[in-house]
Design goal:
The chain is of the alpha+beta class. The chain contains 22 helices and 26 strands. Helix 7 crosses helix 10.
Length: 766
């Protein structure tokens, strides 16, 4: 009994340790030596940067830019501003203003570039984490580096980009227009998709990652959190960073460092100085300092490689790497060892066909039931708590509690099923099914998702455990517990990482991971006779966490409800509407949309650009107010080679902050020049805007009230209806509308055009 309890405690301790070591446990204070990074020093400029929303085009944006320039100049660096128009692949046009500086090296062929962005997301985010944390990480890192008085071998370029939130626009104009881009050999980019948790390292490269990973290991950051699976998944998702422009447009490699926990703060008014996890900022600094020191003197011509490496982090060993070329040999060796152990086990009498069959029944039962219940339970919870659908992030304020609940629920199922399968002599047989499934998964991964091939490491330790169970009737339980350490330290963090990174809809995947991990813990738990007691314990904990999540399901001042309201004036029809994206109305929105709003059928025809392509849900008639209308004039109209070329100038008379442009999807646009930027052809038809979503052509984010100049080339006999939605973010401040402020338990909904006065106008070209 002592050994069983000790083994259980070891498993619990190592599970906790696998999470604890991902972050620094303390932060560097203000008295840290000047040549070292200090989180407390970094927090001083962060407080200034994150005082108010500073999205591209507003006054605070200019103030933040000037403050960053001042901080760089205090370090003795000369700065410059690069500006120019850019249109992203998402159809977002803006005029970013990048902040640039450069430290000269003594023997530079290629430069190291430090990258982050200073614009916050429009219109309510304070941008403390995204990406104020990146700005102050670089500022403090540069201060510490320069204090060493060492001249680097390589030039160090600092790019604090603009317009990242709109579509990587600042990175676009640097990579494609600035001469310094030709000098860049490697990029270190600092980002955020939340306000806490460990910072994940993600590689950006068009070729192999072998040399990048070798350099990363040699640089030896103290708390590396990185695995090749995460990047494999990252490449499949529609999420980009500024570094993507370097990779796609200039074939420049680099490292992203981004934290993603507390995702509910991402792009919201909650992205504040006080909510940024200090240990997370320390983690960013723990990456920058060793990498800056290392790559300042490294050969940046030796970055490219055609070979790929598997990589993952393990406590004590930090980052483990090995070539892709090992994947198939390691898989083949595991298969040979498994087959040998099966034959050996039957020959020795430690395995029996009946118990092996029972092993497969038990494992498939736990796997299938856990996945189905996990998937169905979250669907049910979204019905019970419809307010969760208002959080477009997909991660609720009580999301961590749900991860704990689903984990305990899965463990309850595992212990219950394997209690029924208990036999004093069948532990070895029970391990056969999990090892078989792990082997099949590793086989699929080897061909379909090679970045996850480090899954084979826990499999090897599982095979060692099976060998011990075959050789000995009662092997040392504590020794078997030690053999579970690899699966715990490598796999346990993934149980949390997936729903945090991809949303709670993916909780069923966490359930699957828990079952897979449990399968390799059977060498210990197989000897536990009263697993039903542990099943009851975890069932109780499941209920406890679900009740806790329920108690936290309501919105409050600390966990406010995201909501939305717009005033939309149709200048041509002389009508006005209140509009919202919300599915569940609250007291504030009901004041304008009433208890009986109407479906937003008309507005849904045009979906305004947003991260998740979210459309309007409800509208209600609104009073018509004298909102100043824009000036739209045709400045040129001619027929050239059978096509009509028409130039249009759209000028706002109320300092518009955003202009959305739509045209019916049947309208053909041969070419388009928008504020001097050519729209890219989208397919073999040699037309532009051909794959538009819900009629949207592009969005223009305005700076300095500069007009929107458009030149379209159209079929000469085509009738084209251009629809313009001109928006300002002054819904609550505008005295004409007398809209009350939100309650303390509400915030503006992120990712959508919100708190806006919108004027719709139509220009018909016949």
């Amino acid at each position: 009994m002592f050994k069983k309890i000790t083994a259980l405690l070891l498993i619990l301790i190592v599970t906790y340790w696998s999470f604890h070591v991902l972050l620094p446990s303390s932060i560097s204070n203000i008295d840290t030596p000047d040549e070292n990074f200090s989180t407390e020093r970094a927090l001083i400029p962060l407080k200034e940067i994150s005082k108010a929303p500073h999205y591209l085009g507003n006054n605070e944006h200019t103030s933040v830019r000037n403050y960053i320039i001042e901080q760089l100049q205090k370090l003795g660096l000369e700065t410059e501003i690069q500006e120019g128009y850019s249109m992203s692949k998402w159809g977002n046009l803006s005029k970013p203003k990048n902040i640039l500086a450069r430290i000269k090296g003594n023997d530079s062929e290629k430069a190291l570039l430090l990258l982050t962005h200073y614009d916050s997301n429009p219109h309510s985010s304070l941008g403390a984490s995204d990406a104020g944390s990146g700005v102050v990480t670089i500022l403090e890192g540069l201060r510490a580096f320069l204090h060493t008085n060492k001249t680097p071998k390589n030039d160090i370029i600092i790019l604090i980009s603009d317009g990242e939130e709109l579509g990587l626009n600042g990175a676009d104009i640097f990579v494609n227009q600035h001469p310094w881009a030709n000098d860049v050999g490697l990029v270190l980019n600092f980002e955020a998709r939340g306000s806490g948790g460990p910072s994940y390292m993600l590689i950006e490269t068009n070729q192999g990652n072998a040399n990048l990973m070798k350099h990363f290991v040699e640089a030896n950051p103290e708390y590396p959190v990185a695995n090749s699976l995460a990047y494999s998944i990252y490449k499949m998702l529609p999420n980009d960073t500024d570094l993507t422009r370097f990779r796609e447009d200039a074939d420049i490699d680099g490292f992203n460092f981004a934290f993603i926990d507390d995702h509910f703060d991402y792009h919201t008014a909650l992205d504040t100085y006080s909510r940024l996890d200090r240990n997370t900022l320390e983690h960013q600094g723990s990456y920058l300092m060793p990498l800056l020191t290392y790559f300042a003197d490294a050969n940046l011509n030796n970055i490219k490689s055609k070979e790929d490496y598997i990589y993952f982090n393990v406590p004590l060993f930090k980052t483990v790497i090995y070539p892709f070329s090992w994947i198939l040999p390691m898989l083949l060796l595991a298969l040979i060892l498994f087959i040998y152990l099966i034959f050996y086990g039957f020959k020795k009498g430690s395995l029996s066909s009946g118990h092996v069959v029972k092993s497969f029944v038990a494992f498939f039962t736990t796997l299938i039931f856990s996945a189905i219940i996990g998937f169905g339970l979250w669907k049910l919870l979204c019905v019970i708590y419809p307010q969760y659908n208002e959080m477009l992030h997909g991660f609720t304020y009580n999301g961590h509690t749900y991860i704990a609940a689903f984990t305990c629920m899965t463990l309850s199922i595992c212990f219950f099923v394997y209690h029924k399968a208990y036999n004093t002599k069948n532990t070895a047989s029970l391990l056969v099914a999990p090892l078989t499934i792990w082997l099949l998964i590793c086989g699929l991964i080897a061909f379909k998702l090679k970045g996850a091939s480090f899954f084979i490491i826990p499999l090897y330790f599982g095979l060692i455990s099976l060998w011990l169970l075959i050789r000995q009737k009662r092997p040392n339980t504590i020794l078997l517990a030690f053999l579970t350490f690899p699966v715990l330290v490598i796999m346990a963090p993934l149980v949390k990482m997936f729903p945090v990174g991809l949303g709670l809809k993916i909780l069923f995947v966490s359930c699957i991971f828990v079952v897979l991990i449990f399968g390799l813990l059977l060498q210990v738990f197989g000897f536990f006779k009263h697993k039903n007691r542990l099943s009851i314990l975890f069932l109780f904990l499941t209920g406890w966490f679900l009740i806790s999540a329920h108690n936290k399901s309501s919105f409050s001042k600390e966990t406010p409800k995201p909501n939305s309201l717009l005033y939309v004036l149709d200048a041509d029809k002389n009508t006005a509407l209140w509009a919202t994206y919300d599915k569940v109305l609250d007291d504030w929105t009901k004041t304008y949309l009433t208890e009986h709003p109407e479906p937003a059928s008309e507005l849904q025809k045009n979906t305004i650009g947003s991260k998740y392509q979210t459309g309007f849900s409800f509208t209600k008639a609104a009073p018509i107010k004298p909102i100043p209308l824009p000036k739209i004039e045709i400045t040129h109209d001619s027929i050239i080679n059978g096509y009509r070329q028409i130039a249009i100038c759209f000028t706002s008379n109320r300092n518009a902050e955003r202009i959305e442009v739509f045209a019916d999807s049947t309208s053909i646009i041969k070419k388009a020049m928008i504020n001097g930027v050519s729209a890219k052809e989208t397919d073999a038809t040699k037309t532009v805007f051909n794959n538009r979503f819900n009629n949207r052509l592009f969005s223009y984010y305005v700076t300095d009230n500069e007009p929107l100049d458009m030149v379209f080339t159209l079929p000469k006999n085509q009738t084209t209806h251009l629809q313009f939605y001109e928006a300002t973010y002054d819904l609550i401040e505008n005295e004409l509308l007398d809209v009350s402020k939100r309650n303390d338990n509400m915030i503006p909904k992120p990712f959508v055009l919100n708190d806006a006065i919108v004027v719709k106008t139509v220009l018909t070209i016949k």
